[in-house]
Amino acid sequence: MHTSSELIHDAAPPGAAPVGGPDVRSGWAWTLPRGPECARRARTLLADALAALAVPPDAIADARVMVSELATNAYQHAADHGPHELWLSADEGGARPPAEVRCAVFDAFGDATLPGYSWTSGDCGRGLSIVAELSRGRWGLLRTFSRLDTPVPGKAVWFAVAGAS
């Protein structure tokens, strides 16, 4: 449980609380709203944080699309299962930009599974295929606990992006 602004790395992204634990690398977390503004807030927070870490603009653009998909899913499918959190962790080397950055959106709907995707499945399910493609297959689901305030069981859907070109 971390709610302070103390630094874990040499520079923390704007407005982030430091987090860490046995199942994750050190990083930062933000609370996301449960309403329709969840995706917009996640995109803004992530873009600002990645810019502070000197991640290249094309990787930031891809990350904004992916986090928007995950935050939208959290809002649409787990709105009543809060808290919702945005997590960010960079590789441990401390380089700017880092070699890899991982981002996750947490919600407390831990029983949910990742749906299969089919081009014939209609409008639902395409967001995760976008995440799979833009992350080059570096994404998944982790059953875990919230990181801010009182730990709540749930799931984090994550993706990785290359930080350095």
Question: Helix and strand layout, with pairings?
Answer:
Blueprint: E1 17-21, E2 24-32, H1 38-52, H2 57-78, E3 84-90, E4 100-107, H3 126-134, E5 139-145, E6 153-162
Counted beta strands: 6
Morphology? globular
Average pLDDT works out at 79
* Low-pLDDT regions: 1-14, 20-25
* Main sheet: strand order: 1-2-3-4-6-5
CATH architectural category: 2-Layer Sandwich
Give the topology string: H per helix, E per strand: EEHHEEHEE
CATH superfamily annotation: Histidine kinase-like ATPase, C-terminal domain
Alpha carbon gyration radius:
15 Å
What can be said about the biggest beta sheet? 6 strands, antiparallel
Q: Give the strand content.
A: 25-35%
The helix content, as a percent range, equals: 25-40%
Number of domains: 1
Q: Could you characterize the architecture of this molecule?
A:
Residues 36-134 form the Histidine kinase/HSP90-like ATPase domain. It comes from Actinomadura rubrobrunea. Residues 10-22 have a biased composition (Low complexity). The protein is an alpha+beta fold and 165 residues long. It has one domain (17-162): Histidine kinase-like ATPase, C-terminal domain (Heat Shock Protein 90). It contains three helices and six strands, in the order E-E-H-H-E-E-H-E-E. It has helices at 38-52, 57-78, 126-134; strands at 17-21, 24-32, 84-90, 100-107, 139-145, 153-162. Strands 1-2-3-4-6-5 form a six-stranded antiparallel sheet. A hairpin with a 7-residue loop joins strand 5 and strand 6 (153-162). Helix 1 packs antiparallel against helix 2 and helix 2 (57-78) packs antiparallel against helix 3 (126-134). It is globular and about 40 Å long. It starts with 16 loop residues before the first strand and ends with a strand.
